[in-house]
């Protein structure tokens, strides 16, 4: 699973941020590595350099799955870290639902080759 990180000009992309993103995504999405080929991370500060309070940090995650259309989710939060963590949680729920539906479809069609990945021990 490849992870590509993109930031706007208001968020500094460095190795510490990249490591945080990788750790957050792998901890939440490691059970989907057989299905997900790439995740694109788009981080932005919607208010830019202005000092407004609120949930202005945005994390958009786009997961590319083998043989399927990409899945995208967005999370807004007060900090970049909270936005990343919240987005990872949302994507985990979305992929669980999607993989479950695929498994059910294959079970109904009689294909024994598809199974949901094992639950990650947390």
Largest sheet properties: 4 strands, mixed
Give the CATH topology. Double Stranded RNA Binding Domain
Q: State Rg.
A: 16 Å
Which whole number gives the mean pLDDT?
Answer: 86
Low-pLDDT stretches are none
Query: Which band does the percent of strand residues land in?
Result: 25-35%
Q: Could you tell me the number of beta strands?
A: 4
Written description of the protein model:
This protein is α+β, with helices and mostly antiparallel strands and 122 residues long. It has one domain (2-109): Double Stranded RNA Binding Domain. Helices cover 37% and strands 26% of the residues. Strands 1-2-3-4 form a 4-stranded mixed sheet, with helices on one face.
Key words describing this protein structure:
single chain, 122 residues, alpha+beta, Double Stranded RNA Binding Domain, four-stranded mixed β-sheet, 2 helices, 26% strand, elongated
Q: Quick recap of the structure?
A:
The chain is of the alpha+beta class and 122 residues long. The protein has a single domain, classed as Double Stranded RNA Binding Domain (2-Layer Sandwich), CATH 3.30.160. It is 37% helix and 26% strand.
Topology:
Elements: E1 2-7, H1 15-29, E2 36-45, E3 57-65, E4 71-77, H2 80-109
Parallel strand pairs: 1-2
Antiparallel strand pairs: 2-3, 3-4
């Amino acid at each position: 699973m490849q992870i590509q990180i993109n930031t706007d000009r208001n968020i500094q992309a460095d190795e510490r941020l990249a490591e945080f993103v990788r750790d957050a995504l792998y901890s939440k999405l490691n059970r989907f590595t057989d299905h997900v080929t790439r995740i694109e991370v788009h981080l932005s500060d919607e208010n830019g350099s202005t000092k407004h309070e609120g949930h202005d940090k945005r994390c958009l995650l786009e997961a590319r799955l083998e043989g399927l259309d990409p899945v995208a989710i967005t999370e807004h939060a007060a900090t970049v870290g909270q936005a990343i963590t919240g987005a990872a949680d949302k994507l985990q729920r979305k992929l669980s639902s999607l993989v479950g539906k695929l498994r059910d479809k294959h079970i109904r069609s009689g294909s024994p080759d598809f199974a949901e990945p094992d639950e990650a021990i947390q």
